Amino acid sequence: MPALEVSEYVGRIVWLGLNDDRAAGLGNRAVETLDLRFSGPLGESRSGLTRASCSRVVAQYPRGTEIRNTRQICLMSAEELADISAEMGVDALNPAFLSVSVLLSGLPDFTHVPPASRLVNDRVSITMDMENRPCHLPAKGIEAAMPGKGGLFKAAAKGRRGVTGWVEREGVLRLGDELRLHVPAQRAWQP
């Protein structure tokens, strides 16, 4: 039996984003393609084979420790983004505000796919690390565009923020591409 099982689920890319300069802001700009390298999307400010550890891993490392960059890509579900928008009371939330790299349609309960799942097509493979928990950082951009709504994001995004991932197979992603979900062939941990 293979370590990863090919699922029946296919996600279609409906939006791609890139952040050229993280110091200038969290938001991504919409792009037609992402050229994925082992270090992450070409031109992405958060690319790199390694990164400095942050608040997410302080239980494992002192802040600033060089670690493997498993957060090269932010992946979200269009359906979950619509649910976040509805809970916030807005018609639509621009994925650029959330630093989304790849917005996919067609993958149910996407934020909870098992870690080590892959999104694969004949050119590219992305390994998913874990849930991208919502934080307060997107609130500033949302608030600037939609006064009174930025503070609603974190609670509305709980359990719907998508996942982070890293490039396992280099290639180019395009709007409209389809990626099939492959999931680990193992039972859930039962301590």
Account of the protein in words:
With 191 residues, this protein is mainly beta. The chain has one domain: Beta Barrel (M1 Pyruvate Kinase, Domain 3). The protein has three helices and 13 strands; from the N terminus they run βββββββαβββααβββ. It has helices at residues 78-88, 139-145, 153-157, and strands at residues 4-18, 29-31, 33-37, 40-41, 50-52, 66-68, 73-77, 102-105, 118-120, 125-131, 163-169, 171-174, 178-184. Strands 1-8-7-11-10-9-13 form a seven-stranded mixed beta barrel. The longest helix is centred in the middle third of the chain and has 11 residues, at 78-88. It is globular, with a radius of gyration of 16 Å.
Please write out the topology.
Elements: E1 4-18, E2 29-31, E3 33-37, E4 40-41, E5 50-52, E6 66-68, E7 73-77, H1 78-88, E8 102-105, E9 118-120, E10 125-131, H2 139-145, H3 153-157, E11 163-169, E12 171-174, E13 178-184
Parallel strand pairs: 7-8
Antiparallel strand pairs: 1-2, 1-8, 1-13, 3-4, 3-12, 5-6, 7-11, 9-10, 9-13, 10-11
CATH architecture label:
Beta Barrel
Q: Class by helix and strand content?
A: mainly beta
Q: Overall 3D geometry?
A: globular
CATH first level:
Mainly Beta
Strand content: 35-45%
CATH superfamily: PK beta-barrel domain-like
Order of SSEs: EEEEEEEHEEEHHEEE
Q: What is the number of helical segments per DSSP (H or I, 4+ residues)?
A: 3
Number of strands: 13
Tell me the distance between the termini. Answer: 24 Å
Share of helix, binned: 10-25%
Radius of gyration: 16 Å
